[in-house]
Amino acid sequence: MRYQFQFEAVFAEADRILNGVLLTIGLSFGAIVLGLALAVLLVAAKSLFGRWVGMLVDAYVELMRNTPFLVQLFMMFFGLPLIGIRMSGTEAALLAMTLNLGAYATEIIRAGVDSIHRSQIEAGLSLAMTKRQVFQYVVLMPALARVWPALSSQFVLMLLASSICSFISVPELSGTAAIIEQNTFRSFETYIVVTLIYLALALSLKVSLLWLGRRIFPRLSSLDRLDAKAEAA
Amino acid sequence: MVTFGWPEAFFIVRAAGWTLLLTAVAFLIGGLMGGVLAILRLSRIKLLRRLAAGYILVIQSIPVLMVLFMSYYGLSLFGVELPPFFAASASLAIYVSAYLAEIWRGSIESVPFQQWEASASLAHSPAQTYRYVILPQAIRISLPPTVGFLVQLVKNTSIVSVVGFVELSRAGQLVNNATFQPFQIFTLVAAIYFAICFPLSRLSRHLEKVMNASRPH
Amino acid sequence: MPAVLIEDVHKSYGSLEVLKGVSLAVEPGQVVALIGRSGSGKSTLLRCINGLEAFQSGRIEVAGHAVDQDQKRLRELRKDVGIVFQSYNLFPHLTVGQNIMLSPRITKNVPQAEALALAKDVLAQVGLSDKFDSYPDNLSGGQQQRVAIARSLAMKPKVMLFDEVTSALDPELTGEVLLVMEKLARDGMTMLLVTHEMNFARTVANTTVFMHQGKIWESGSSAQLFAEPQTPELRNFVGAGRH
């Protein structure tokens, strides 16, 4: 017997799918903004404060990078209420995504900061800036510019990983798929549609980040040329 | 009510064995597929290059979870009822193949072009050039990111619990459902993942340092 | 009181001693050239003066500030002591104007309008008024170095340090940078410069100091030092430069 594809039942749930898409976008956007801010703060703390602050940051980064996002999500969702922190599934998802992305972004941005030539820091210090000012005004933007491609990839991976939030019944895109699948008994059709939407979302995010990178860091390509000159000098 | 004790902990630890087995199988099959894809990706025939690039782009742009669902439900449509372990390995292998193909393509391309010229000048065939000149260098370059990706794979095996396969994460969930002591249980689960992943992460970083140090500059 | 006072400064990296008791006094308005082979310690000495390098013993006082490693006091010192580097070290993500205005704004709280006027003024001094909105990578090396000088001038320094500022430049671009420095010297700026430009040292510097093996080997008025070098090392050095 040949299988008859029936997408009508799935398309009838368009409203639900749209809400799922919006939640996926919202969660990803929130995690990107918050995770990036967290990472910048942690890298700043690591470069400005003493050794044990750095070790604390390292411990956090290693912990998050070497355990599955799913387990982190369970910890937030099942574990935190036990110590009196009560959250909805969506809030737990946003927290887990932020902490996870924050750790990866910390590692990436730290590499960017390390790649800034020492002479830039000396120039800042020689102009009477504090170490914090040197980080903020001299180091941060060129460092971010240099690692923007790596950060962008990480953001896309986070968007994809947000699908795992369906494990704690967050009604984002893949959570919505589970509901539609139950309502319509059209599992394969449901997942074809949802997969195509993920594909479209991921590719759009990739393109937008590329565009955004060019807008925020118009001198992106010039950094390395200047570096090469400083190196040659 | 059951409480979290030694039998439960033992159940979880034993499930970690399945996580490792799943990782190994997915890596092996995915690696073979990835190797072929990497070569197709660099083929002289445009169509093959395009097809490989398209496959890699699509798989890297959809959640692993969707790969899992698609292969699981897709196969069952054709009456193929795969045991969960095979469905899980197959979909993870698809995921692995796309990422390894991309890592390995990059490694092959980062061997300096002059090496091709030098090898060709010594009358080597393209196959000989690959075999004796390019691959030995490319493999060295690819080691750190490949080991790094292995960490991602170990962690991503956690999602196959969704098709009913009991590996480390699923074992944790099951015990949690019975005892509801999430802190202890998921701390143990996380600790086991960490014990597997952290040494691999360190190894990857160590290899990278060794490579950077030995690279002529 | 001298603008720069250096007394018996010793500095070593591990067991390698690079400054072996250096003493030097620079009066306000004086231009002092430091010359010598690479590794003679001249750049290290310059970097000790604004605290970029710490030294183990001895004393340095510059523009009324004692050099130590207290960050807060060092910042006060650096407001009065400018330095220009061999590799320009402009901030690549900022325009020329922003490069110049940044430090007055954030370290001296100079109001925006005032910083803007200041930036335009110092840019005019180095002859680059039209480059205010350019980015560093759109400028030639010589222009970048002139911007770096302007950036230092905007801090209204009492003393300026120049660390081989023309060494990274093509020969045809060194002239424009030296011209700017010459004008600064004429305007009475106290300057200490490490340089390979013997002609410039001879004609612009009042005093030339020849460093060798971490010590001041020979020093005196530039005219005399170049005309009648006393030590074989300096004779050798000056001779080698002449070809």
Largest interface: A-B, 37 and 34 residues
Radius of gyration based on Cα positions of chain C: 18 Å
The shape of chain C, in one word, is globular
Distance between the termini of chain C: 40 Å
CATH architecture of chain A: Orthogonal Bundle
Averaging pLDDT over every residue of chain C, what do you get?
A: 93
Count of discrete structural domains of chain A: 1
CATH superfamily of chain C: P-loop containing nucleotide triphosphate hydrolases
Order of helices and strands of chain A: HHHHHHHHHH
CATH topology description of chain A: MetI-like fold
Q: What is the CATH topology descriptor of chain C? A: Rossmann fold
CATH class of chain C: Alpha Beta
Strand content of chain A: under 5%
Q: Calculate the mean pLDDT score of chain A and round it.
A: 91
Question: Number of DSSP strands of chain A?
Answer: 0
List the helices and strands and how they pair.
The complex is a heterotrimer of chains A (233), B (217) and C (243).
Chain A: H1 8-11, H2 14-48, H3 51-65, H4 69-79, H5 89-115, H6 118-126, H7 131-161, H8 173-184, H9 187-216, H10 220-232
Helix pairs in contact in A: 2-3, 2-5, 2-7, 2-8, 3-5, 4-5, 5-7, 6-7, 7-9, 8-9
Chain B: H1 6-41, H2 46-60, H3 64-77, H4 84-109, H5 113-121, H6 126-156, H7 168-179, H8 182-214
Chain C: E1 4-13, E2 16-26, E3 31-35, H1 42-49, E4 57-62, E5 65-66, H2 71-80, E6 81-84, H3 96-108, H4 112-125, H5 141-153, E7 159-163, H6 171-186, E8 190-194, H7 198-204, E9 207-212, E10 215-221, H8 222-227, H9 232-242
Parallel strand pairs in C: 3-8, 3-9, 6-7, 7-8
Antiparallel strand pairs in C: 1-2, 1-4, 4-5, 9-10
Helix pairs in contact in C: 3-4, 3-5, 4-5, 5-6
